[in-house]
Amino acid sequence: MHGMAKDVTRKGTWQTSLGRKVIMGLTGILLIGYLIIHLTANLLVFAGDGGRLLNLYSHSLHQLGPLLFVARIALAALFIFHIITGIRVVIQNRKARSTRYTMAASKGGPSKMTPASRWMAITGLILLFFVPWHVNMFTLGPYYETVIDGVPMRDLYRLVVERFKDPAIAFTYAAVMLFLCMHLAHGFWSALQSLGALNRRWLPVAYTVGVILAILVAGGFFILPLYTYFFVPMPA
Ligand code: HEM
């Protein structure tokens, strides 16, 4: 009996709103880390070298073989944890709201879903549709081949430029990045707060850093498709 009670308590830790917030914060910070690396690599499109560096970079990643496989599984797990926990937080907030609403109906029913958390849910949902569309377009897209320094490899650069020459794709990407910016701006600050990293003094600093980081990361991803659409020539 005693053992059972202990188990329930342990399970309960991750079922609490604090446990969920910690998962959101940790997975969120790691996903931001991935996005920074992903953007840095993608900025190679601006190198103006006909895709040489971008393709070499991607080829060197693919040389990692099983290690790349493990990294991709870990990345997918991060996304899935982040999304499932996010959905549970939304459900939990809605429940809390409806209980409070019945209790305080005459006072207008204070909402636990703050404008910020509502925006996190909406922008998160947009990204939930974007990421599979994106992975299907590039990772799982057609395999064009090129030869660099005598080595045959995937021509991802051609695929990226070809896709972004379609105005529907380029402008949809740019629009989605505006939502990414909002998601990151609030997410970074909120993650640090959930992880208990902030006291009152550091709150505004973290908020400013989060907004700057969001503008830099989402801004880079925003400019890329538009720059490619307007200025990058289609490879021969
Ligand atoms: C202009 C914007 C972007 C460009 C040009 C771009 C480019 C690419 C390319 C070329 C790949 C395929 C990599 C490969 O197969 O080796 C890829 C994969 C991926 N991208 Fe992006 N990306 C952009 C924005 C984003 C954003 C905003 C997110 C997340 C919110 C994202 C998440 C991913 C994920 C999860 C993968 C799969 C990882 C993998 O294939 O190993 N990307 N991206």
Kindly report the CATH topology.
Answer: 3 helical TM bundles of succinate and fumarate reductases
Helix content: over 70%
Indicate how many domains the architecture comprises: 1
Write down the secondary-structure element order: HHHHHEEHHH
Rg measurement, Å = 22 Å
**What is the level-2 CATH architecture name?**
Up-down Bundle
User: What compounds are bound to the protein?
Assistant: protoporphyrin IX containing FE
The CATH class assignment is Mainly Alpha
Biggest beta sheet summary: 2 strands, antiparallel
Brief descriptors of the model:
single chain; 236 residues; mainly alpha; 3 helical TM bundles of succinate and fumarate reductases; two-stranded antiparallel sheet; 8 helices; 75% helix; disordered N terminus; binds protoporphyrin IX containing FE
